[in-house]
Amino acid sequence: MKSFLCNDGVGLVLEGGGMRGLFTSGVLDVMLENGIAFPCAAGVSAGACFGVNFKSRQIGRALRYNIQMVGDRRYMSFHSLVSSGDYVNSEFCYHTMPMEIDVFDVEEYARNPMQFHVVCTDVDSGKAVYKNVERIDRVALDWIRASASLPMISKPVELDGLRLLDGGLADAIPVQYMERLGYGRNVVVLTQPLGYRKRPTRHAWLYKLLCRDYPAVAQCLLHRPEMYNAQLEYVEMQAKNGRILLIAPPEKLGIGRVEQDPVKLKSAYNLGRRACEMQLAAIQDFLSR
Q: N or C: lower Cβ tally within 10 Å for the chain?
């Protein structure tokens, strides 16, 4: 049994970004290979979908099933969008695939003492909703699905009397949430390079039109650049103060949110591995303090 280096006061934060999240998967796999663990993690969107494999300690799983499913219209496709209302097919991706095709280790997930929180957005209020996913079952998988359900290409997911969509709309980098939980120092994995900033929203009328049934979601989309950029500035400030260790791509990954080119997917994953390997000593030092 591998012994794990873990500091009870240090949390892990995983931002989203669709298939850019394979960069995060590469980072997390290197951490697992080197016995690095955390008492608590928060994942948003792809950070939730791929981050659960860190708690189940399944090295390589996220890359493996994404490569395997490339081109399968049951996975991600306009066929799925037209036929089901979800570009990422909810039943196949979040139930059939993890339970029957590339099986998720629900027992190891439950054994691992790390808490894993996912972030969603309440469609009706526009506020962030946080859920500690203690074990993996059908409902838990729907919480993860909700965290990654992009507006306009996904239907809201109904859970606990709420209608939920992608967590990145309300809290894209949940460092302050982790701080409220008591984790004053955090390792944060980004999927955009350091110094990146979102440009101001263009075509606001289009968001209002496409999200006319969800005005709070439209407002989230309109104000997302300023929210996200403010979070980046906070994260960078905390990094300068020594309270955050940042891991980010050295350059833009050059892949889209729903990328299905296996070469690009593997390249993003390998960039994550290299980024973590280069910062491995720094991570170990950060956890040892």
A: N
